[in-house]
Structures are given as C-alpha cells and as structure tokens.
DNA sequence: AAGTGGTCTAGACCACACC
DNA sequence: GTGTGGTCTAGACCACTTA
C-alpha cells in the first residue's frame, strides 16, 4: 500500500475510534508530516481521501475539522454496484433463478449502448435474484460475447462478476447509471411477486472496461419497498 | 482559476473538439508539461480531473487514452442537486408555487436528521416547482431557522439557494441522498397532476454546510415520466 | 503578524507495458 | 532497455482566518 493510503487509513481509524473527536481540529499538516515522517504533500493527499469520504472538512487559515456525520458512520452501501450483487450481499443468502439465457444479434439500441457491430453476438440474460428467500431484483443483461466469453448456465447461477474477475481477469473502470421509477410490467408482477399498481425502481447501467469499451448493459428492476439507493456527494465546488 | 483547472479545461475542449481523438493516445505528461510550461505534477492533477469525469483513461507504462464515451458527451445533469433547481434549469421557465410555509418545532425524526434540539424552530416548506408550465417536482423541505435566517415568501417564490449564497454567504460541503420509488400520495396526485397508480420517484436529501452541520432535509417527489437520475462512477478500485 | 491549508516546482524513484 | 504514469520529496509562494 502506498504511503498516503496507509496514512489515510490510520487517520480514519483515529476518527472512528474517537481519538480525533467530532467537530474538533485535528493536528495541522506540518505536524502530521513530522509525525508520519513524510512530506506535507503526502499528508495532504491522505486528507484528500478523507475529505472525499466526508469525514473531515478543511478550511484555509483555520485548520482541519472532523465532520459531524450522521449518515457517514453508517455502513453506506453507496451506489457502487458494478462489482456485482454477490459481493455486496455477503452474509445474506443470495440465489439466482435463470429466466432466460440466449445468444442473439444485437438490436439497434444495444449496438449503440455496447458500441458493437450488428455481427457481434450478445448474451441476453434475464435473472431473478432472490435474497434470503424473497424476490429482490429482476436483471435484464446484455453482454458482447467477445468480452464475456465462455458463460455457462452454471456460472450465471452464481456470481458472474467473480467469474469475470477470477477467470477472465477482466477489470472495470466504472459505470454509467440511470435511476428511474416505472410501472410494473407483467414480467415484474410475475417474478417480483408484486401488484399491478406497485411502482418499480429501475437502474439502467452500462459498465465499462478499463480501456473504455462498454462491457454490459443491464436494467435491474426492483420492488419499490425493498430497495433504495443512497449516496454521498462531498466537496463539490459551489 | 488555478493552473491545473485551466489546463483541464483546455484538454477537455481538445477532446470534445476532436483534436484528441476517441480511443487514441494523448501526449504524455512530460510533453504536456513542456507545452503548458508547468511541472509534471500540475499536468497530472489536471488529468486527474478528466479521469474522474470519465473522459480519459490512464495506463501505467502505456499512456493516456481518450475514452470511448457514449453517455459522457451528453450533457449529463448528474446528481449534483444541492445548488438548487434554478441554477440547473437555466434556459427553462421555472416557477414555484408555495403550498405551505410555516415555522414549527421539529419532530423527533427532524431533530435527528438536522441534529438540532427540540427548542430550535424549523421552517417547513412545501413548494411545487413548475417547469415550462408543467408540474415538475413537489418539494417538502425543512431548514433550521438559525441557519436559514430571514426567509420570506418572496424569497422562496424564487431561488432559495441564490438567497442563501448571495445574501447569507452560506457555503455547502455536500449532501447525502437517497433515491426510491413510491406510490403517489393524495398530495402527489393533486399537485403533480398524476394518476393514483402512477409511480413517484422520490429523492430524500440532507445538505451539509462546510462545517458539517446539516442545513436542509428535503423530500423531492417527481412524476415517474419526467425525471430520472444519471451519474457516472469512474476510477473505482476493484 | 502568525498560522493554516492550497498550489506549484524540479527532480527523484518506482511499477508497469512494450519492444 | 525505454518510455509511460504513480508516488514522494523539500521547499517555495499564495490565500485565507484569526488574533
């Protein structure tokens, strides 16, 4: 681990352990650089991380404070979802029911989303994810066959992302997401076991590889009463 | 403007103008530092910004590429909302209809969200925002009276955030948000002019001041067919 | 005036990819 | 080996707050 990450980790635990108390000043950057025997730039980089996490707040001329933080101390499962549900839901029983698993040529829309030619086949996958025995989310996923090669029913019954990571050594750079509310389709009603008039929370997602190629397009449809998305925006310019 | 911001801006326009073409290498950091006559650290800081925006991707040993970007070139009104709707919706006609504007003692829930005592009065404000003549969002807002002092009907008919910024010189550090789908309440139906069975997209938001104090709690309820939230997560660790 | 955090420099070394 | 980006340094200057 690099120095600034290690220092950020140490200071973070001092905050959560109460050594640096809420709403009080922490030592200034020069003092910290002497304590950790690093340059001030390195200390600043460590503090940048904590500021992005919303743990501290810095004011030119005054110093660095520990933030009052109501939502931050909670385990905030922020909207970082492209590492898959399996990883997020550790400690829960997560099952997958495969509803559809085919290979087909892409639609116009999918050609655009995945930036592929008509001739590149895509996996078309519909999975119902069941959390602790209850229907949780219905996922409609498209992946180009040249990037997610060798998918089998066995793999997609478990964790696709584990397979991609461990077997194909695929790395992601990030994702584009769109969240909206929608009416329940017949599909939603059947598999999520919800009423015609129950709202659905849909997350449309395009995941990108490190080189910028789109790797997956999916629409995840959630029951309105089992899922919400929380996140934190800190340190934006005003 | 500081150097690295100016350089980021220049490189950003070279990308959007097609001078640096998609999927191709851009000049290396040393070359750029010579061109802009700055140190390499400053170039790196400029590139950090563009990487966070998802415009470029850097690979150790290889260089810096322009990302293939479908959603990124679009005007992505990301989820940075605490600077108010007025600022975001420039070019559109935005009206506000005040439905409720009172001062009251906080509920247990609001005491917790805003981290205030029972004795600190809060503004309770309900506004319907009307975009280009159509009902757009119904906002339920609570603000402590000691932080948002001097609110009047006149102010809240326009831009509250402009008042806070220009008159009270208040600065924000960020916000906590939760997005969910919900059924339409009687209120929603009446003011957003929607059907009993239309889903609602609700954004719950707590905005924080620079010193970490909670400044506003709001629930913004949107028609499901007029609003979605898009955002980009880039450069996460995997 | 003193002390704080923010920026910037010039240079060094390292990790990694490619040849 | 060469070239790339990532980290780190020691020091400088600036912007800002507080006294």
Structure at a glance:
Two copies of one chain form a homodimer. The first copy, chain A, is about 25% helix and about 35% strand.
Q: Overview of this structure, please?
A:
By secondary structure, chain A is α+β, with helices and mostly antiparallel strands. Chain A folds into 2 domains: 3-66, Winged helix-like DNA-binding domain superfamily/Winged helix DNA-binding domain (Arc Repressor Mutant, subunit A, Orthogonal Bundle), CATH 1.10.10.10; 76-230, Chorismate lyase. Chain A has helices at residues 3-16, 29-35, 40-52, 85-88, 108-114, 153-157, 160-166, 186-191; strands at 25-26, 56-59, 63-66, 94-104, 122-131, 134-144, 172-183, 199-209, 214-223, 229-234. In chain A, a hairpin with a 2-residue loop joins strand 5 (122-131) and strand 6 (134-144). In chain A, helix 1 (3-16) crosses helix 3 (40-52) and helix 2 packs across helix 3. Strand 7 (172-183) of chain A pairs antiparallel with strand 10 (229-234) of chain B. The structure holds a DNA duplex (19 and 19 nucleotides).
Sheet with most strands: strand arrangement of chain A: 4-5-6-9-8-7
Estimated structural class of chain A: alpha+beta
Q: Helix and strand succession of chain A?
A: HEHHEEHEHEEHHEHEEE
Main sheet specs of chain A: 6 strands, antiparallel
Our count of domains of chain A comes out at 2
Query: Judging from the principal axes of the Cα atoms, what is the shape of chain A?
Result: elongated
- Name the CATH homologous superfamily of the largest domain in chain A: Chorismate lyase-like
Query: Would you count the extended β strands of chain A for me?
Result: 10
Mean pLDDT reading of chain A: 85
CATH fold annotation of the largest domain in chain A: Chorismate lyase
- What's the tally of helices of chain A? 8
């Amino acid at each position: 681990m690099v120095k600034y990450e290690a220092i950020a980790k140490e200071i973070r635990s001092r905050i959560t352990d109460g050594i640096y108390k809420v709403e009080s000043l922490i030592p200034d950057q020069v003092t910290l650089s002497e304590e950790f025997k690093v340059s001030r730039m390195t200390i600043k980089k460590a503090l940048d991380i904590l500021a992005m996490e919303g743990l501290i707040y810095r004011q030119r001329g005054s110093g660095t404070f520990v933030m009052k933080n109501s939502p931050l101390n909670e385990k905030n499962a922020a909207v970082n979802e492209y590492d898959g549900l399996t990883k997020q839901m550790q400690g829960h029983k997560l099952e997958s029911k495969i509803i559809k698993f085919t290979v087909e040529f892409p639609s116009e829309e999918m050609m655009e989303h995945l930036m592929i030619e008509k001739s590149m086949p895509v996996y078309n996958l519909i999975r119902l994810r069941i959390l602790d025995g209850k229907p949780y989310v219905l996922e409609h996923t498209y992946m180009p066959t040249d990037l997610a090669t060798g998918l089998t029913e066995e793999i997609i019954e478990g964790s696709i992302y584990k397979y991609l990571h461990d077997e194909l050594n695929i790395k992601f750079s990030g994702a584009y997401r769109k969240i909206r509310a929608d009416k329940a389709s017949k599909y939603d009603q059947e598999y999520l076991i919800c009423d015609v008039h129950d709202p659905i929370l849909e997350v449309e997602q395009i995941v990108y590889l490190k080189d910028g190629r789109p790797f997956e397009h999916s629409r995840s449809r959630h029951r309105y009463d089992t899922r919400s998305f929380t996140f934190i925006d800190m340190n934006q310019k005003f």
